[in-house]
Amino acid sequence: MLFFPTFRGLPPYPLVKDLSEDELEYLTCWLDFLQARRSPDCVSNLGKIVGHLKEFREQQESGKTELKLAKKFEFDRMFSE
What we know:
The protein contains 3 helices and no strands. The protein is mostly helical. It has one domain (16-80).
């Protein structure tokens, strides 16, 4: 499981190019879930994603971020105590 402590729609954002395959899968699953919940059957009438956060795009293009993702062992330690 991954932990994104400051990822609430505000910068800093993770750089997509630096995410592992597992991290990217985790995030895209959430995007799918958030889009699918708009539909009564979670399949039809999903609508389109029509926008993006300007700050997210600018940060991706710059290739720089101050966000430090918690490693799995740090996440496990925080919730095992």
